[in-house]
Amino acid sequence: MDKLTFGWEEWVALPDLGLPAIKAKVDTGARTSALHAHDIEVFGPASKPKVRFNVHPISGRDDISITCSAPLIDRREVTSSNGESEHRFVIATTIEVNGQSWPIDVTLTNRASMTSRMLLGRQALTEHINISATERRLQPDLNYDVYHTASLRHTAPQRALRIAVLSREDNYSTRRLVEVGEARGHVVEVIDTTRCYMAINQLAPEVHYDGKRLPRYDAVIPRIGASITPYGTAVIRQFETIGTYCVNGSAGITASRDKLHAHQVLAAKKIGMPTTAFAASPKDTSNLMALVGTAPLIVKLLESTQGKGVVLAETKKAAESVIDAFRGLRANFLVQDFVKEAAGEDIRCLVVAGKVVASMKRTGAEGDFRSNLHRGGSAKVVRISKEERDTAVRAARAFGLGIAGVDLLRSESGPKVLEVNSSPGFEGIENATRKDIVGKVYDEIEARVKPQPARRRKGADRGGPSPSGRRATLRPAPQSLYKTSRMMRGKR
């Protein structure tokens, strides 16, 4: 490596932290380098702790904030030039100057009152560096324009994320979400949704769990069971209020779980589905059946899951008997046309971020018209048509779901959407297709939490602070954080 000559101030880049341009003051009297950081939070297992923090890379521009994370290597006492001692977290990262890079240790501290966002100590100034203490910026200049351009999003590194899975189930899907996330270097915590409780107020909405306020998460993956839909979606709404990215939003989950509401959404978007009818009065039974057509008919509870509460009535008399029985139980239900040509088969399309990432054909057990795998059905990979793919994508988009299992029937008049599942299982479709579906979910999460470029303030100076004006943040302003926190994984 060729020797570089540093003045007392230089432009540097910290690419591993997603900081492509930052001014640093050179201080040969300090052993370790220091970086301006705030909202510092330790997370992850004790054996491999990580630290997350926010950096204002431009002095005087607190509205521009980059969220960084790195492995935590130490915590040490540092004495400043004025004699004050402070315990600081220490991370290892890479510094880049004039096309050359090398590893350095950095302590994290609040340098808000100082013009330089970073201080370079002796450990960073290797034997390959010459120092000219009377000059400044001897290496090529950078500028802060990168924080105002789209290139920031594309060049941001993949950092360790803190992700919550809202689930009461210790099943394949939950375990895979933890396994794949941790294999990518993220920290994934399973939270029992029913044990969350909320502080609802204007200034500082919070979610609490097991006697403690939950820390700030980069993303939340809801796995809300049908039996707790109202409370589960209330918890998700609270995370949405805080500003946390939720893979599936509360409104989409609520609409998809109510089959009557779901079919109204599909109809409004002109998405094909079996002819459906609903009525509240027992006097309307005959008229209700007439709207759908002749027997056989499907009678379905509005909040049925996994094929439970779905009955095939093969004759008009049988349909009347089932409807009377459901009404006697004060159950809400709807009546649908039975698509005979589907022959007990349906297609599950797994949609992630607006794309069908896998599809399988499900066939019901012998003698059963329902194709649910939970009821003994079988699955195999299937090639779907462009029309079926477009229908599945449109159905997921209609509910605003980042992850959705869209169930289709193949009918003579084209694909019919049977159901849109906001918490689809991964086991059956991963086994059938041999695809890493959960990996696709994390691809989307990682893309969504990358920093967004900020809009430049009117009259802003490229090289430094700009006058006060409208806020333009790269990420939502963070909520109050713990300095350290531990989470217990919730199990049912």
UniProtKB/TrEMBL annotation:
Keyword field contains Magnesium: yes
Record keywords, A-Z: ATP-binding, Ligase, Magnesium, Manganese, Metal-binding, Nucleotide-binding, Protein biosynthesis, Ribonucleoprotein, Ribosomal protein
Cofactor: Mg(2+); Mn(2+)
Gene Ontology CC annotation, any one: ribosome
Protein name, per record: 30S ribosomal protein S6--L-glutamate ligase
Residue stretches spanning the membrane: none
Residue ranges constituting the ATP-grasp domain according to the UniProt record: 263-446
Gene Ontology terms, MF aspect: ligase activity
InterPro entries tied to this protein: Asp_endopeptidase, ATP-grasp, ATP-grasp_RimK-type, ATP_grasp_subdomain_1, Peptidase_aspartic_dom_sf, Rimk_N, Rp_bS6_RimK/Lys_biosynth_LsyX
EC number: 6.3.2.-
SUPFAM superfamilies: Acid proteases (SSF50630), Glutathione synthetase ATP-binding domain-like (SSF56059)
Spans annotated as Disordered: 446-492
Entry keyword annotation includes Coiled coil: no
